[in-house]
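Narrative summary of target 7.
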Amino acid sequence: MDDQLFVSKYLVKLPEKKIWKLYEKGTQSIEIGINIIDFQILFFSFLFTYSKLKF
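Modeled conformation, tokenized:
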């Protein structure tokens, strides 16, 4: 239950606005924004599998 609460709290704090600002600045920034999104996807998939294994 604690892990799910942590994930929901983290979802609220996702830096979507920061990513969009990075997109506006140019090609290099777009790559950085994509990397941030990829990291978040990996992080959430890891948390999901971890919580599945735990319970």
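The CA atoms of residues 34 and 54 lie 30 Å apart.
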